[in-house]
Write a structure and sequence with these properties.
By secondary structure, the chain is α+β, with helices and mostly antiparallel strands. The protein has three helices and six strands, in the order αβββααβββ. α2 packs across α3. The chain is globular, with a radius of gyration of 13 Å. The two termini are 19 Å apart.
């Protein structure tokens, strides 16, 4: 649900913060999306979107925490975390998380 929500939101908005992970920024709609770990402070938008989709407050927070954990775990172990229909999060230089847009 989180990945679908993220993709759908970025179709009509310029950025979305994933708390404690980073921000997806749309450079050119439908053509270019980048990811920055510099902006990761929770602005409440993602949690609000998940709640609007029918999740409770704790369930939405848990969904975000689980996503962040799974992405970081994959990156730390040299793997990739696919975002079907959107791109791939993987290990970047110096222990960072990098994003490759499809």
């Amino acid at each position: 649900m989180l990945i679908h929500t993220l993709i759908q939101y970025l179709e009509s908005h310029r950025r979305l913060v994933v708390p404690q992970l980073g921000t997806f920024i749309v450079k050119e709609p439908g053509r270019s999306v980048v990811f920055s770990e510099l902006l990761k402070r929770d602005d409440g938008v993602l949690r609000g979107l998940l709640r609007a989709g029918g999740m409770g407050e704790l369930e939405a927070a848990g969904e975000i925490d689980r996503f962040v954990f799974e992405v970081r775990h994959a990156a730390e172990h040299g793997g990739e975390y696919p975002l079907p229909g959107f791109g791939v999060l993987a290990a970047g230089p110096n222990g960072t998380v990098a994003f490759r847009y499809d």
